[in-house]
Amino acid sequence: MQFLVLTSDIAPVEWAEHEALLVDEAARVWQLIEEGRIRQIWFTRPAQDAVMLLEEASMAAAQATVQTLPLVRGGLIRCDVLELTAYTGLERLHRRP
């Protein structure tokens, strides 16, 4: 199953004060990419929030995975996890009279 993960800061953060934690976050993200669990990751503009395409077996597994991120464990960010499903809107094209 695929999930869209939207991150946001819990409160204003001085990121320069958390360099070691940011390195840990990058290492964990890289590990999840290598494992095939994070398929894509981006930053938004201008907020620099992360957006991830995550692949897991269930919503519970997806939520457990995001809880392993150092910035989540450190209480600096939260993650909203949305389950994705196939877009069926194109079926309307085949139902035209």
Explain how this protein is built.
With 97 residues, the protein is an alpha+beta fold. It has helices spanning 19-34, 59-66, 70-73, and strands at residues 2-9, 38-43, 50-55, 77-83. The radius of gyration is 16 Å and the shape is elongated.
Structural key phrases:
97 residues, 3 helices, single chain, elongated, alpha+beta, 29% helix, Alpha-Beta Plaits
What level of helicity do the residues show?
Answer: 25-40%
Q: What are the secondary-structure elements, in order, as H or E?
A: EHEEHHE
The SS-based structural class is alpha+beta
In percent terms, what proportion of residues is strand? 25-35%
Neighbour order of strands in the largest sheet: 2-3-1-4
Biggest β-sheet strands, sense, barrel:
4 strands, antiparallel
Our count of domains comes out at: 1
Q: So what's the CATH class?
A: Alpha Beta
Using the alpha-carbon principal axes, give the shape. Answer: elongated
